[in-house]
Amino acid sequence: MRGAAARLILLLALAAIVGRTTIDARVASLAPVASEGASQTSIAAPAESAGQPARPAAASSSGQDPWGFEDEQTVETWSDILRSQALNLALVASFFALALVSFLRRSVRLKYVTLAATIGYMGFAKSYLISIVNVFGVVKWDLPIVKYNLAWYLFAILAVLSTLLWGRLYCGRMCAFGAVTQIMDALLPAKLRVEAPAPIERRAVWIKYGLLVAVVAYFVATNDLLVYRYVEPFWMFGLSGTAPMWIGLSALLIATVFVRNLYCRFLCPVGATLGLLSRLTVFRIKRWSECRTCRICEKACEWDAIHGPTIDVMECVRCDDCERIYADTEKCPHWIVLKRKSGRMAGAAGAR
Ligand code: SF4
Ligand code: SF4
Ligand code: SF4
Fold first, then answer.
1. Is the pTM of the predicted complex or chain greater than 0.70?
2. Atom of ligand 1 nearest to the CA of 168
3. Structural domain boundaries of the chain?
4. Protein residue whose Cα sits closest to atom 8 of ligand 3
């Protein structure tokens, strides 16, 4: 009897050990899955959003794992995410540093180096351009996932921040399409250009604001993102256009030969958006009292952003042209008058 009881106890103990081991194995396999699941909802998001079906939970049909749990999952940490995008982040930061130095030093040579880098890297290599699609994204608050697009967000933040600080620096230095038209402008003979009467040009700049309102209203009403193809040519840097789109772009570039910065000045809805934002600009271009009558800078401005003593911040792209004249003691009447005055005062002091 005692022997039978001992065997029963031994059997129960063995059953408990086997049962415990199985439960422990399942808990152990569950634990990482549960904790990763809590932290990786958004990591899984791109695959899900790309329409990929979720992986089956287990290989139970293979008979290898009767519990049907994943054996292992890769945990993506912020350091992995940053490491994979570090080069891009560094290149965007370096590019912005170049643009800023060229702007602050008012260097013509550095400006063209920046424009070349803008076309090559921001345009053809990365296709980093602020697009009307991004304006749509802001309107519907549907933006790219931050952690997978860090370099693009850095670029976009710098574009907006520089606009708030100085005005449309993005248009003057950082937009690849604007860089193409500015380089065309510098290379093509000035005699090819057709100057429309100033009142017509000044009214025509409002076309882009009308286009911005129309295209955003169209998007809100239809959710049709593809409308961007008809209002901006930035797809050219991804070489992704259809034949009619390339024909339209060729016509636009041919027209740009004759009308300087045609698209940027009259048609670009992104330029219009940044123009509106520029109304908040902190550091504006200063003017001398002599600017009330002097027209030197007005004639030099290739963006028709100077009207008499006033600079139209919505049209100015901070190209530096007028600021170079502003600081030029040989060209700007303000300095010339000042020098004459100080010369006269020195002469009068010498005569006494
Ligand atoms: S106006 Fe448009 S195309 Fe021109 S530089 Fe600005 S954003 Fe680029
Ligand atoms: S040249 Fe000098 S005075 Fe004349 S508009 Fe320019 S900054 Fe003003
Ligand atoms: S020249 Fe015209 S576009 Fe350039 S910085 Fe002066 S006002 Fe702005």
1. yes
2. 6
3. 79-283, 285-346
4. 316
